[in-house]
Design brief:
By secondary structure, this protein is an alpha/beta fold. Helix content is about 45%, strand content about 20%. It folds into two domains: about 180 residues, Periplasmic binding protein-like II (D-Maltodextrin-Binding Protein, domain 2, 3-Layer(aba) Sandwich); about 100 residues, 3-Layer(aba) Sandwich (D-Maltodextrin-Binding Protein, domain 2), CATH 3.40.190.
Length: about 325
């Protein structure tokens, strides 16, 4: 009996020492780490260059590999973006940069720009070989589209900076499609158009060539990056879903990066999702669309510079006033 008690006593002492020693060891846990919880996001894409960077993410969603439940809608008219953001049909949308500022003002600050997705997409086409610098436009007639919107403000800025404000006759045509047809038919020998209408016109008329890249001309004149497309979100949606928005941006950036290195597949996806009508056209147009991903402080600097230009030309082009700092997500 005494022997049994002694053995138990020794065993108890050993357990006590073991417990004391364990206090110095790091604690471990078998509880699982918190997994990311996907949410439903209503996302609007815009047909044309502003929507190109989204197509891989749209494909991932259909394949079931996207991290969130993205409900994509593709529209052709920016006015549909305005209506959808105002009535909360969309949480996130791709849109022209001046429209983002207009929405911010209409929504009384309940909007943030998340990232830049498209730099400049404007070009001057010529049926001939007389325009090789911006100065060569002097004394010429230039057909253009976008009167009362960003193309007009960009063109006017460049004409003024190059001392050509009263030396170029600008005739505005109502739509991109109409001007592309005029250029292809040889009826507009010098024309300012955005992609993919540049490619559409050149496909129909082999004598057309890109004479001027207005993104490059803008950077020469201003020292700043020309921005034409951004991705925006309702601010209350961002506040209520911070992790989901970060996940979206991670996936969106990956989609844009994919665009840069997978041209043929991206072109096919553009046709599939109605961003550009034909894959063959998309393949030719995408390299000129300046698809990009810029966020944070660099985004704020670039976007603010462009909005100031539009504001100076016409305050109503951005909704009447410059956005405050809270417009810029992560900056």
């Amino acid at each position: 009996m005494k022997k049994t008690v002694s053995i138990l006593l020794v065993f108890a002492i050993m357990l006590a020492f073991a417990a004391c020693g364990a206090k110095n060891e790091p604690e471990t846990t078998t509880e699982p780490t918190t997994a990311y919880q996907p949410i439903t996001m209503k996302v609007a894409g815009l047909a044309g260059p502003t929507g190109v960077g989204m197509v891989k993410l749209m494909s991932d969603k259909d394949a079931g590999t996207a991290k969130n439940d993205y409900q994509f809608t593709v529209v052709s008219d920016p006015k549909e973006i305005v209506a959808g953001m105002l009535n909360s049909s969309y949480d996130i949308a791709a849109c022209p940069v001046n429209l983002a500022a207009t929405l911010y003002n209409k929504l009384e600050g309940n909007l943030q720009v998340l990232a830049v997705n498209t730099k400049g997409v404007l070009y001057v086409l010529e049926n001939g070989n007389t325009i090789n610098s911006f100065a060569d436009l002097a004394g010429k007639k230039l057909y253009a589209t976008g009167q009362g919107s960003t193309p007009e403000y960009i063109l006017n800025y460049l004409l003024e900076k190059n001392g050509l404000a009263d030396k170029v006759t600008v005739e505005y045509v109502e739509s991109h499609d109409e001007l592309a047809s005029l250029a292809a038919a040889g009826k507009a020998t010098i024309a300012m158009l955005p992609e993919p209408k540049v490619t559409a016109a050149m496909t129909k008329n082999a004598d057309l060539r890109i004479a001027l890249n207005l993104t490059e001309e803008f950077e020469k004149a201003s020292g700043k990056t020309l921005i034409q497309g951004v991705i925006v979100a309702k601010k209350d949606f961002v506040t209520n879903n911070p992790d989901a928005v970060k996940m979206f941006l991670t996936e969106y950036k990956a989609s844009i990066d994919y665009t840069a290195s997978n041209l043929e597949d991206t072109a096919t996806l553009c046709e599939t999702y109605g961003i550009i009508p034909k894959a063959a056209m998309a393949k030719k147009a995408i390299p000129n669309c300046n698809i990009a991903y810029i966020d944070g402080a660099d985004m704020k600097t670039a976007v603010a510079a462009n909005l100031q230009l539009f504001y100076d030309a016409n305050p109503q082009s951005i909704g009447g006033k410059m956005p405050a700092d809270d417009f810029y997500y992560g900056a």
